[in-house]
Amino acid sequence: MMNSITTGPSRSNYLLSISIIGVLYFIFGFVTWLNGSLMPFLQTACELTPFQASLVTLAFYIAYFVMALPSSFVLKKTGYKNGVFIGLLIMAVGALIFIPAAYTRQFGIFLAGLFVLGTGLALLQTATNPFVTIIGPRESAAKRMAIMGVCNKMAGVFSPLVLTALIMHGMDKFSENNLALLSPDQKDLLLNQLASRIVGPYTAMAVILAIFAVLVKFSALPNQIEVEHDEDEHNTLKDFVKQIPGALKIRHLLFGIITLFVYVGVEVMARDSLTQFGRSLHLDYASRLTAYTMAFMVFGYILGIILIPKIISQSKALVISAILGAFFALGAALSSTTDSNLFGGIFGWLNSIPGFNIPILPNAVFFVTLLGWANALMWPAIWPLALDGIGKYTKIGSALLIMGIAGGALIPPTYAKLGQSIGFQQALWIMVPIYFFIIYYAVAGHKVRK
């Protein structure tokens, strides 16, 4: 089913629409990549183990699994612009749930807020992707998608830095050694003060999301997208679900779903779970490490815009990315956690610039942040390979791929659990076979036809 519009938007409406969608993609990235800083904060404030803190990613990403199938049917009833409006309001509610969570210091309430945030975000992403195609000329849709991707990834650079600056300052007094010296009442009082720091930022987020929802509601974005007739259109969720067994018999689609599942898992590890690795090494800047990963991801994304498809194909890009991922994962698992010669040799000169004062990362941590570069092009490369030639199963295939985002819910907690048992650096070994599987899919798995 192809999206289409009967009349092109005026230039003023086009610029307004592209700006709105750009802000939405920035919001996606900003909210998603707050989790890396949120995990160490909640680990301290709610007195959690690393595994318990990793449930932040489970609560957030499992919402994609739950909402993947219902989202398209919600949008069919509400319309696309109204769907964006509803998604933003759901996210605002999720942010407001952080207020009672902070005042009670109940981790379960925090997880509920994260699930609601993820639910709204899943609906938003389902609604906004078609807009990128229809708000301008179809021949420039790829360029608009590239712009949206940069908006999304740049938010991932800034969001951990913003949250860290707002809630993670003066953390020395909340160290385990200092807390151990306090009486139970004194410790509770101090941790309550820490937890209350999150109220202001998330209240502001809720207000901004609600205001932007109203602006979208009365914006020039179209509410309905005209589509060509599709003889395989399904009117109920039950009819849609009946296609799942047939879709899963398509081998290259099934392998694609597995590939996307494990890819999202290691991507979230390299972003959000990196803070746990840094924390285990007693790095006082651990909560900001996500920004490094996202900076390398932006670099990889820009390379993709330049090189694909003029110089390399998307399938070749996936092969190269997976090989880089395997190399960086091995480097992270095997290199030193105390020596910083690699990062210092490449980027140490930045600190000679007035105003620059970036931490020099240990080699092992540096290799994990480089995974942002390796992971950057995997999402756009896996999708077309998985959906190639599947005909009437394209819609259900897309929904199943979205459900594969649940890899971000399950693999990082597995890493955290292993990290508690064998050490967080040794637990990084679980990434190596994952990248080798992605290499297999990029080279041969996507060619399997049945």
Percentage of residues in helical conformation: over 70%
Total helices: the number is 21
**Topology order in helix (H) and strand (E) letters:** EHHHHHHHHHHEHHHHHHHHHHH
Count of separate structural domains: 2
Shape: globular
The structure class reads mainly alpha
The CATH architecture of the largest domain:
Up-down Bundle
Q: Assign the CATH class of the largest domain.
A: Mainly Alpha
Radius of gyration over C-alpha positions, nearest whole angstrom: 22 Å
Strand content: under 5%
- Total strands: the figure is 2
Strand order of the largest sheet: 1-2
The residue-averaged pLDDT reads 87
Main sheet, how many strands, which sense, barrel? 2 strands, antiparallel
CATH names the topology of the largest domain as Growth Hormone, Chain: A
Q: In whole angstroms, how far apart are the ends? A: 23 Å
Query: CATH homologous superfamily of the largest domain?
Result: MFS general substrate transporter like domains
* Residue windows where pLDDT falls under 50 for at least 5 positions: 1-9, 227-231
